Amino acid sequence: MALRKLKEIKIEDVLLGLIVLFAILYPLIIAFIIYKSDQPVEDELVNAVVEYFEEGKCTLDGPKGLTVEKREDLERLTALCQRINQEGFDLRKKEVEEGKAILYYGKKVKGMERKLVIELTIEGDKITGIRDYEKGR
Predict the structure, then answer these.
(1) C-beta neighbour count of 110 within 10 angstroms
(2) pLDDT in tens, 48-71
(3) Which fold has domain 42-135?
């Protein structure tokens, strides 16, 4: 019985069904693409933090296009910005991984390299954690 109905289906019916299915799903596909393209990439977020440090304004507004989840983290980010600019640290390297960014700042002191490492935990367009430590002192 089911086999007879399958034999009665014509190629035109299948093509018409596929066209209708595509017409129904097309807006969903476009909406998904637009949604994904509007979300900032982690590398862009890290670049916003680096620009914030390099500008030297170091206000409690934080980096443009980026929100900091906790008030303490925003204050810590501002303090790090001030320290980087006052002590003359330069960006040496940045690593961006899934949900995490590591910024390596350094400066020469009496022939030795002093390094400041800043680890940022990123979720979406928010900084959810900041950790910093110094190497080579």
Answers:
(1) 5
(2) 888 877 887 777 777 776 777 788
(3) Nuclear Transport Factor 2; Chain: A, (3.10.450)
